[in-house]
Hints:
The protein is α+β, with helices and mostly antiparallel strands. Helix content is 32%, strand content 26%. It folds into two domains: 4-98, Phosphorylase Kinase, domain 1; 100-250 and 278-282, 2-Layer Sandwich (D-amino Acid Aminotransferase, Chain A, domain 1). It contains eight helices and 16 strands. Strand 4 and strand 5 (35-36) form a beta hairpin. Helix 1 packs parallel to helix 8 and helix 5 crosses helix 6. The two termini are 32 Å apart.
Amino acid sequence: MNLKLKHKGKVRELYEVGDKYLLMVASDRVSAFDFVLPTGIPRKGEILSRISVFWFEKTKHIVKNHFIAYDIEEIRKYIGSDFDEDYFKDRSMLVKKAKRIDFECIVRGYITGSGWKEYLKNQSVCGIKLPSGLKEAQKLPEPIFTPTTKADVGHDENITFQEMRNILGAKLADEIKDKSIALYKFGAQYLEKRGMLLADTKFEFGILNDELMLIDEVLTPDSSRFWDKSSYAAGTNPKSYDKQFVRDWLKGSDWDGKSEPPQLPKEIVDGTLGRYLEAFDKLKTVENNVSK
């Protein structure tokens, strides 16, 4: 095969395509609590890629992005014919090569997850003071930007926005924050009309030709927390359409969180796939031709 593997992450592989492009391949692997689980979710990579393609097209008016092609015949024009089509088809995106900015840009519209744990300790998240008396999963008065350092291995570390500004410079950091919140608000409004609440999400950015560019994935069940609007209530653990279903099972199992994680039972695999498919179906896009 004439593609050179550039990087293999927890759930994705990146292949070099000349000097200007990358082939980003979403696998069926699942990561949780900094581990890659021994059991994958069939078709997960396909669903995540399709969702990202949808959002890259929908959000071009907010910020440029690295997406070029998803159709395998279009990708073939760039990479030739010497590749494993059975593996790459439907789970790959051809993208522009950008210089990655090493921060995960998290926007929270609701107080949950690690943000809820931090709030319980000091009534703030990443240095942002929040109102007292919030309940778990309660909507925040305004979405907040809570960046973390980007770690390929191990834990990402929460930092304050001011610390991010000190590292990147005020102009770039401010632009990233503004674009992240604009993307969150756009996605949240779109999803709410389709019966889902966007609790929180993370974006990644790069620089190409001195311009900020949205990269990686966008508003997928792997990078976001989606809740069912019809059953949502503050103070509860809302029904989710993401891999929180897997996390909850792991936390309820005998796994110690340190050794190799256990195999996922069939009902957890099927339940996770069902949630991903349901989230994709709710987007109601013309590309939505994944059959159940």
